[in-house]
Design a protein that fits this description.
This protein is mainly α. 56% of the residues lie in helices and 0% in strands. It contains two helices and no strands. Helix 1 runs antiparallel to helix 2.
């Protein structure tokens, strides 16, 4: 299977997505032990919204990032189009 060439604009979007995912993981771990921290919950919710927005941008241009109902597919089915998320 050959990898499709991606434009340079793809990589900053993916870096933003990876950075926001890191923040969400860290906030999740923190909130597991500090469940009443209102400010941390606000930060988490803000980051979750940002992630959703960035993910939509990436998928609208480059195709789905996740499967099993977490991402919509174009027509024709485009989950098997490269690059797959782990190939980036």
């Amino acid at each position: 299977m050959s990898h499709k060439q991606l434009p340079p604009e793809f990589y900053p979007l993916m870096e933003q997505l990876q950075a926001i995912d890191f923040v969400l993981v860290e906030l999740t771990l923190y909130l597991d032990t500090h469940p009443n921290d209102v400010e941390a919950i606000r930060q988490f919710n803000t980051c979750a919204k940002q992630r959703k927005y960035i993910k939509r941008q990436v998928e609208a241009i480059y195709g789905p990032l996740q499967q099993y109902g977490n991402s919509y597919s174009g027509c024709p089915w485009n989950w098997n189009d490269s690059p797959w998320p782990w190939q980036i």
